[in-house]
Design brief:
By secondary structure, the chain is mainly α. It contains four helices and no strands. The model has no long low-confidence stretch (mean pLDDT 97).
Amino acid sequence: MMWIATLYAVAIAGVIAFQIALIAGAPWGHLTQGGQVQGALPKTGRVIAVISIPINLCMALAILSAAGFWPNWPVWTSWAALVLHGVVAVLNCITPSRAERRLWAPVTLIILLCAVLIVLVPL
């Protein structure tokens, strides 16, 4: 279970690093938020990236708690995070942006698979 939790944590850290890069002005608008922006995100897109960081962090802490790590949150939080990971994976698989789909569909499906294994497989 440790290597699955590690893979999960590394993947989430990558997602958060991507969001930080978007906030800083990285020209990757075509890879996020429906792929409707070429270049750097406008202010509203950057605000969405800012909001996604604590959401991803909370989901990660919930799943890692289910894996037996700190912060030992209640089990229901891991189920809520699992549902959100499922929604994110579906949205990344159906986005109209081909570039976004090619990058994020595999990443979010791996994150979802790790989360499923952590939450559903007993420690």
